[in-house]
Amino acid sequence: MGESRTLWEIGLEGCEVRSLRSRLGLDSGYASRVLRSLERQRLVRLTPSAGDQRVRLIRLTERGVTERIELDRRADEVAHSFLDPLTDRQRVRLVDAMAEVDRLLTASSVAIDVEDPSTSDARWCIEQYFGELDTRFDVGFDSSRSISATAEELTYPAGLFLMARLRGNPVGCGALKFHADSPTELKRMWVAREIRGLGVGRRLLAELERRAAEEGARVIRLETNRSLTEAIDLYRKSGYQEVARFNNEPYADHWFEKVL
Amino acid sequence: MGESRTLWEIGLEGCEVRSLRSRLGLDSGYASRVLRSLERQRLVRLTPSAGDQRVRLIRLTERGVTERIELDRRADEVAHSFLDPLTDRQRVRLVDAMAEVDRLLTASSVAIDVEDPSTSDARWCIEQYFGELDTRFDVGFDSSRSISATAEELTYPAGLFLMARLRGNPVGCGALKFHADSPTELKRMWVAREIRGLGVGRRLLAELERRAAEEGARVIRLETNRSLTEAIDLYRKSGYQEVARFNNEPYADHWFEKVL
DNA sequence: AGCATTCTCTGACTAAAGTCAGAGAATCGC
DNA sequence: GCGATTCTCTGACTTTAGTCAGAGAATGCT
User: Fold this and answer.
1) Is-cis flag, bond preceding B157, omega within 30?
2) What are the tens digits of pLDDT across the range B17-64?
3) Distance (Å) from CA A215 to C1' C5?
4) Distances (CA, A) of A146 to A129, A133, A163, A242, B161
């Protein structure tokens, strides 16, 4: 039943009831009853949160932890009952094929859409992007020294901001800055490390190009740092040609452009 | 709901209600209500069977066929929604990986057990085996000219009969004939064409050897025809050595034996 | 301070997918 | 011919997994 799933989702550290509810997508009334039933079985303990008296914290009791371990064990048993009749080679092939299916279904679940660059999710993406630049550039990265791409500059009609989401969670972004008298600029291309290699960067780039073309852009250009090798590979494979420096971005080593 | 599943399982040719029920594993009362609901929607027509007035035949009406096609279309749509965001290469990889998972899970669902060689399922397997020999041997195959391996000879303690089943359906067999003064003989190795290449032959052979050893056999031997190349490969790979003719089976070209 | 909002809980209700027992009609086995 | 079995149907009941409306307490906003 759903109680097992809930027990499992609580985790060994416990959590707030509201976060549990939103993670499992449960109705508040339903969640309340499920948790009370777990409490009656002495599998969990509910306590009011210290900070906010409305919020309830839920933790597994010792019995709850035992039960959770038992659930894991039974899941393992099912897995073994599938693997048991197979040879070692077949097991490896099964595990590999399932991982491949999982990867590709994950890839296909990533949705890309225009979003407002000023939302907290969008700002979170951009922070991740800056953080990654800071660790990868030899000299670190300070966004105030770099050419600007503010939320206003990336909001239509000045520009646009694309976000990639996996089951609701932001996992990538990319943006355009339109200019009246010069080519459209590509900015803020970032893909979360966990889902790299699934073609999300390629999809973001293709979608940005499609939308740039829709806005009448003939040429897209961008600058990038030599440490961002995957990005540079992607640009080259997507038809971008290296061109002479066209701006004075202090962190850039390469300038690319593509005629749409 | 389950009605769609039922509608789909009826098939375009219709079927008997009892076979539908056993295929879907439905309770008779529940099935009755589901089918009546489909009948009320004019998706199926129920008629008494000509032969047996207890049995009811179910057929899709024209509306039912349309509905079934619509169900297929919607399933296709879901499949497309998964494939749409992927590149052609990713699609090929997804389809391949899913087929691999399916193959390996099928392999792992095959259960091998000792069964009575006189049941109709066992006789069916042996007929399939004879049928295959008849088409593959240059001179055809007439079991009455071949060395016997009757149900009695393959029943413990004279011998034993293993059957491989996939979700209840027989898909392979293999047998042993024990002898007081000569090596145990291996007979009736057959695997249904649909599930070849999944390692079922190898498992049957390993299980026969294990049980032979359990009965105290030190050596297993067998004869086979040159046209049965997969079987010969399997025997060689499993450690069987070709030996001189040890019986006068008219259909045999090769004689093998393995010391356990 | 006071109104809106958030979080949780309770009670009432619902839909889907069954299970179970028993009955009636037809057929089988001897 | 007749008792046992098979097939189907009906009515009563259950379980699972919820939804919905509203209430109460705590907190946030201004």
Assistant:
1) yes
2) 999 999 999 999 999 999 999 999 999 999 999 889 999 999 999 999
3) 42
4) 13, 11, 22, 20, 78
Cβ-based contacts (< 7 Å) between A 49-108 and strand C = 52, 54-56
Nearest by CB to residue B87, choosing from A90, A110, A199, is A199
A22 touches strand D (CB under 7 A): no
Mark yes or no for CB contact B104/A85 under 8 Å: no
Mean pLDDT value of segment A1-20: 89
Helix/strand/coil for A100: helix
B15 touches strand D (CB under 7 A): no
Q: How many Cα atoms occupy the beta-carbon half-sphere of A99 within 13 Å?
A: 6
Interchain pair B110, A84: CB under 8 A: no
Mean of pLDDT over chain A: 94
- Residue positions counted in chain B: 260
Q: Tell me the CA–C1' distance in angstroms for B63 and C22.
A: 35
Q: How confident is the model at residue A1 (pLDDT cuts 50, 70, 90)?
A: low
Mean pLDDT computed over A139-155: 93
**Mean per-residue pLDDT for A221-233?**
96
CA-only gyration radius of chain B, Å = 24
Planar angle of CA A218, A143, A189, nearest 5 degrees: 40
Task: Verify whether the Cβ–Cβ distance B104 to A97 is below 8 Å.
Answer: yes
Nearest to B104 among A93, A107, A203 (CB): A93
Strands (E), chain A: 15-16, 44-48, 56-60, 110-114, 159-166, 169-177, 184-191, 219-224, 241-243, 254-259
B101/A94 Cβ within 8 A:
yes
The residue among A101, A106, A200, A203 with the most chain B CBs within 10 A of its CB, best to mutate, is A101
Classified as helix, coil or strand, A152 is: coil
Chain-centre distance for alpha carbon B149: 21
| β pairing state of B219-224 and B184-191 | parallel
The three-state secondary structure class of A35 is: helix
Distance from CA of A230 to the nearest CA of B (A): 18
CB contact under 8 A, A82 and B108: yes
Q: Is the pLDDT of residue B1 over 90?
A: no
Reported as a single tens digit per residue, the pLDDT across B167-214 is 888 999 999 999 999 999 999 999 999 999 999 999 999 999 999 999
The mean per-residue pLDDT over the stretch A99-106 comes to: 95
Helix (H, G, I), strand (E, B) or coil at B216: coil
Determine contact, residues A200/A110, Cβ cutoff 8 Å: yes
Q: Which nucleotides of C are covered by protein (CB under 7 A)?
A: 6-12, 16-22, 24-28
